[in-house]
Amino acid sequence: MARAMHMTKDITMRDTHFWWHAILAGVIGGAVFLVAEMLLVTLTGQSPWAPPRMIAAMILGESVLPPPATLDGSIMMAAMLVHFPLSMVYGVVIGWIVQRTARYNYTRALAEGAVIGLAIYLVNFHLIASFVFEWFAMARNWVSVVAHLIFGLATAWAYLALAQPRASRNG
To answer: Which of 58, 94, 147, 163 could lock onto 37 through a cystine, CB 3.0 to 4.6 A?
Structure first.
């Protein structure tokens, strides 16, 4: 049986707590995504540093793309400067959508998060990448799909956990 969150009031985008919870949820989801993708990509025999290099190439250019797919601090920093602000924006979108559903069905809210993660994959890898960042086409695979599903799910879970009223968290 799906458990419903007991929200004491409607949360709006003007609510300061909404913004903090959603942004932090995006950071948490973004961190989970990075770890998941780096671990999953190793299952395909690739370097775990390839995904961060692809992200960094969005601002540093294609010259940072592998090979070699090794750890480079400046490339990782550039990747984080792109990845985490995007994760925060997506966290706001996910938080705004799932908080409404969570009042009635917590499991459905988590599923919505996963579906949003899949939508982010489709837009980024099949729409934007086709025109702007062509190198993302090489990452159109199950690893990217699963990592984005995990991102959406983790972000929705983090938002719902953070947004739950304190009385509900403790009781």
So the answer is: 147
pLDDT at 17: 87
Residues near 4 by beta carbon (within 8 Å), at least 6 away in sequence: 102, 103, 104, 105, 106
Sign of CA dihedral 14, 17, 20, 25: negative
Q: How many CB atoms lie under 10 A from the CB of residue 128?
A: 13
Mean pLDDT of 47-75: 93
* Residue 160 CA to its chain's centroid (Å): 15
Gap between the Cα atoms of 171 and 157, Å rounded:
18
Domain of residue 74: give its range: 16-165
In a domain, 9, yes or no: no
Sign of the C-alpha dihedral, residues 53, 57, 60, 62? positive
Q: How many residues comprise the chain? A: 171
Whole-number pLDDT of residue 115: 98
- 41, burial (CB in 10 Å: exposed 0-12, middle 13-18, buried 19+): buried
Structural domain includes residue 144: yes
For the chain, percent of residues with pLDDT exceeding 70: 88
* DSSP-derived 3-state class of residue 137: helix
pTM above 0.85, yes or no: yes
Domain count, the chain: 1
